[in-house]
Amino acid sequence: MKVRGDFLIREIKEEDNLEIQRILSSVMREFDVPETGTALADPELENMYQSYNVLKSSYYVILHNNFLLGGAGISKLKNSNDNICELQKMYFLEEARGKGLGNIMIDLCLKSALDYGFEKCYIETMHNMKKAQSLYLKKGFSYLQKPIGNTGHCSCPVWMIKNL
To answer: Which range marks the domain in which residue 19 is found?
Structure first.
């Protein structure tokens, strides 16, 4: 779907795997995300298409002039028996920031979460990602005192949740 000017959002394709891995890793390192205990250590980074090509999961990418600039996904919260999904791996290169694309991506992911029948959406993030946290708060997320589920992201110190 075309969103703003020459920006396009679509579901991830298998041929996006290498480039989205490069982008996500680059942006996480830009924000000093630790190499362990975060999404940087997730095995699905190497095969994003396959990781999100499962029941109740979606991953969307942003393109500009056919170049990937980032993405965001939704999937069931790992190691939780509750009907909760997680907003995952929402990272954009600088060229995509400040254009309202994060807002659009969150809306798209939350719509998918509702379509999948989830009751809540959870996020883990870093303390220094203040703009992302501000956007999450505007979208109705609130802070939690401790993590839920068991994502393996023990180095992410900020947890948020939203009722869908």
So the answer is: 2-163
